Here is the input.
Amino acid sequence: MEKMSRVTTALGGSALTGRTMHCHLDAPANAISVCRDAAQVVVAGRSIFKIYAIEDEQFVEKLNLRVGRKPSLNLSCADVVWHQMDENLLATAATNGVVVTWNLGRPSRNKQDQLFTEHKRTVNKVCFHPTEAHVLLSGSQDGFMKCFDLRRKDSVSTFSGQSESVRDVQFSIRDYFTFASTFENGNVQLWDIRRPDRCERMFTAHNGPVFCCDWHPEDRGWLATGGRDKMVKVWDMTTHRAKEVHCVQTIASVARVKWRPECRHHLATCSMMVDHNIYVWDVRRPFVPAAMFEEHRDVTTGIAWRHPHDPSFLLSGSKDSTLCQHLFRDASQPVERANPEGLCYGLFGDLAFAAKESLVATESGRKPYAGDRRHPIFFKRKLDPAEPFVGLASSALSVFEIEPGSGSMSWFVDTAERYALAGRPLAELCDHNAKVARELGRNQVAQTWTMLRIIYCSPGLASATSLNHSVGKGSSCGLPLMNSFNLKDMAPGLGSETRLDRSKGDTRSDTVLLDSSATLITNEDNEETEGSDVPADYLLGDVEGEEDELYLLDPEHAHPEDPEYMLPQEAFPLRHEIVDTPPGPEHLQDKADSPHVSGSEADVASLAPVDSSFSLLSVSHALHDTRLPPDFFSALVCDMLRFYAEQGDVQMAVSVLIVLGERVRKDIDEQTQEHWYTSYIDLLQRFCLWNVSNQVVKLSTSRAISCLNQASTTLHVNCSHCKRPMSSRGWVCDRCHRCASMCAVCHHVVKGLFVWCQGCSHGGHLQHIMKWLEGSSHCPAGCGHLCEYS
Here is the structure.
């Protein structure tokens, strides 16, 4: 939709009037140029070459320069320029390598004036001298630049850039003899038209082809360049070496760049592909455009300010076959849609937060940010009130500092170096890692490792012979010894029948809490044994309601009413009738140690106390009939890993992945695992933990991760004698047939770690070279080179 605002600009007695408008062309345009009085514009392309008058309300076609019965390649234009001193003089660059001049004052229909056919390939750019009426410069795909005198029929000078194709040439506005040229290889050259043999200056401006350049109309030494690297750079050419003073990062390759008249820091750009918009940048604010024109629907191929002293009107041609006049007042301002909020972490953990000033409450206790206490990592430039973008978008900045020492990452390094990830049974790995985390004060992580051990490691049984206080032989019993409880360090003076009741809320005088060091011994079918740090808070005995009670048997405080040491018959199935009068404790101890005791007798005997310090109670009935399989907890473990990863502790997530292996890896998608591995490896390498990083890569089962330590591992070795490359078949050089890896100190072949001097190529065993260089700085091979080892 056309915008109806109108601007009138006074220029030395004449006035420019107009509005935002466009007209449809017969074919896509490749370039445009405006005449001296800003009243006409010429549009050139492969299939179009016309002149339009710029009126107040519309474009009006005035002249079609494509005349003749047969189409000629001379009319297929890659560039066009209108002389700023002679309103009747035009020049075009043809795709067949011909430079054509046009004289609009000729009375015939064919306005073609002269043809220059010296270029061998497509001519990319033509440029008239700003003050000399007869000088024309061209740059071609063949790598040559030619200067033509229009009063002659051939070129007067040829400039060879000794490089790839020339993409742009521009005469300096202030220096009469100077012009700039840009090349495909990223170089920019400055030439003096009086010296065609060599350039005056050359420098690399972009990482890739430089497509365009433009001299500043006011600052004599400023040159703007645009390239395929999506950057616009402003160079100060008045210094001895070209100095980059501004850099604007765009979103696509820059095809055209034009300084805005009467605005020292503004320039317009358009893209070669992808982006169809035209942007006007303030080079002092390189990240957000000052204005944006969005009228075109295809790539913009040419832009030109309507008058060299009027900053309000911009003309453009596009591949969408439209010619547009843009009014700067109607341009959209991206800064109005910019996000005023921002969040960023500093190098040492400080947090900077920017938000709209209206949203940030003023706090009396807030103090101004004086910069980082260690290094000045944040700078804020005071804005000049005269700058055009002041007030368009502003934010209040808050910086939150961390307490000194709280951002230390020593725990990460210690954990990475001390963790055990492979080479041991799972239970030992979990116990070791839990111990490491506990010693570093990471109690939650330590508890997680302990829970993983409980989930994935079945509780085992230590053999009865290894227990000093065990009296029952599990292997000799008819029924396996399922659970035994060892109660230690009981308080003196307790009654013989002490109970722990968890089902009732009452407080009883004979209640005793079990010590946390009590050891749980389970059946010997399992392989693992719970450590002494697991609280033994299990209860068993006579049933009251739905809970079991544990009776503590103590021979020194035997209750007179209970002379017998036995359990109710419901505790285990009977094989035969139990003797009514059981023997005394001492007799039972001797009998239990006898190899001829039967299974039932051993069960009964195991109920007797062993000594006065503790009592051992054994039953052959399991406390729990069933045990949940590890797969039951898989979802919970996966949630735990994601929790640690979201908290930023990717070290824990990767470590558990490696330790548990296939137990949990199958439940987490490959992409998530790869992301965790990559993040952890990156952190390890940032802390220079190369060995740990390589171990993590080696233990990974992800193909994308396991190949990381297999890339860039080729070591190219030259023979220390003939300096020729060595083959990979051994230590003997194929050319001189001598051992290349000979130690210069001990004169033996080095088959292990080899260190050599990069200056003289001599070396040897690491320890030998280190010891040698402690006393002498000269090469041990006697070559006279001063070797260094660091």
